[in-house]
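hey so u asked for the seq, here:
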Amino acid sequence: MTQPDRDQGHESTLTVFLALAANLGIAIAKIVAAVLTGSASMGAEAAHSVADTFNEILLLVGLRRSGRPADRRHPFGHGKERYIWTLLVAVAIFGMGALFAYYQGVETIIAGHGGTDPRVGYAVLAVSFVLEGISWRQAVRQVRADARAEGLPVLAFLRRTDEPASLSVLLEDSAALTGLLLAFGGLGLHQLTGAAVWDGVGSILIGVLLTAVALALGRVNLNLLIGAQADPRLVAGVRDRLAAAPEIDWLVDLVTMTVGADRVLVCARLDFRDGLTSGDVERTCVRLARELQDAYPEIDEVFLEPVPRDDPDLRARVVARYGHALGQRPTTG
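ran it, structure tokens below
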């Protein structure tokens, strides 16, 4: 693991630890406030913070276990285990947070009555907003730093990142701040109008918010677990370097897969120039693999296979995958 990778891992752990500490304190305060006020919105927020606390523990487990080195049973390492634990976070957000918020909201609307004195709720919400803001600021700081390191705008980085821990914390904290505002609105409208339905609506809206976050996190991690392609810029660079090698006559196929945070597998099929000996081909493969790993430190393994470019079955598979042969530009029209 390179020094930048270690620094990024330490920063991710710090972000998760900070979120864990904030959510644990907030969860305890919200539970007390929910019991004292009887508010559905406050109860939904308490469940939200309990789920977030549990989620940070899952993220820490994922960060630790995914860093284990490769072994005989796992030759490409354990990097993808991080995505499994983060996917469990998405399930927990929905199962522990959203469903409870829906239940609280519907029950309050049907019963037609809610909590009485909201003053404790207001105080807890205000303190929670400050603590969540501190955690959110750390998550934003890390995401911006990671985006700058990748040379990408923040939104583009969030769409392409293979590091789900910081993204999870950012989404959780953003949802937490929004949920606090919804809970405050539910309490306030209930107090102003005397209608408990507003407290129930606030709880249901918190449930909708948590469902959206769970779906977003689930989609990101599902794509990474299935086997997402590496960053398009890396793929283009690898393609250009291989195609430009003097020993290569044709780049027949190129497949990349993200196998962990900042870990990429590269497989390429190459048509070598006629006249090369088997020794020339072997030395060229070793040189090209070393050059790719030097140019892109995130490349973990490189597999290069000599093949003829006119094999019809191989060409058909490449065209089916990409829509055109890699050794030529796709035609239009």
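The radius of gyration is 25 Å. Residues 1-7, 328-333 have pLDDT under 50 and may be disordered.
lmk if thats what u needed
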